[in-house]
Amino acid sequence: MSRELTYQIATLRDLGGVIQMAARMAGRGLEAGPVELVLRRPTEIRSLSQNRKLWPMLSDVAEQQQLVIDGVPEWAAPEDWKEVFTHSLRKHQRMAKGIDGGVVLLGARTSRMKKKEFSDLIELIYAYGAANDVQWSEKALAVFDTYREAA
C-alpha cells in the first residue's frame, strides 16, 4: 500500500464497517510487507473566520510590499504572497525538478492545514506586516476583530 487513508468514525454504528474495511485493506497490504494502523482523535480543521482573515491580509501585503522574484523586486499577486508565507511555515521545503528544468516547490497547501497551523500562518503574516510597516486595511482589521472573538 502506498497511500494513507483516513476514515472518521462518529458513532458506534459506523465502527463495524470501518473496521471490516480496514481489515480487508490491511490484509491486501500485508502481501507487500508490514502495514501500520493508526487510531487517533481528529484534529480541528481551520475555521471559517480564519479563511475570511487570510485574503484581506494577503491583499494588504501585496498592495504595499514587493516580492523579490528571479532576483528582481516586483509587485506580486496575493496568491504569490500566500505561497511565500505558507512555505515559510515549513521547516523543510520539498523541491522537484519541473518538466521544463525549473524548480517546483511541493506540498504547502492551506486547504490541508489544521486550526493551529493556520493560526500560525496568520501570526506569521502579522509579524511580517509589523516588521515591514504594512498598514492593515479596514477589511483586514474588521475580520481580525471577528477572528479574535472566535479564537
Automatic annotation (TrEMBL):
A Pfam family it matches: NinB
SUPFAM superfamilies, alphabetized: NinB
Protein name per the record: Recombination protein NinB
The organism of origin for this protein: Halomonas sp. RT37
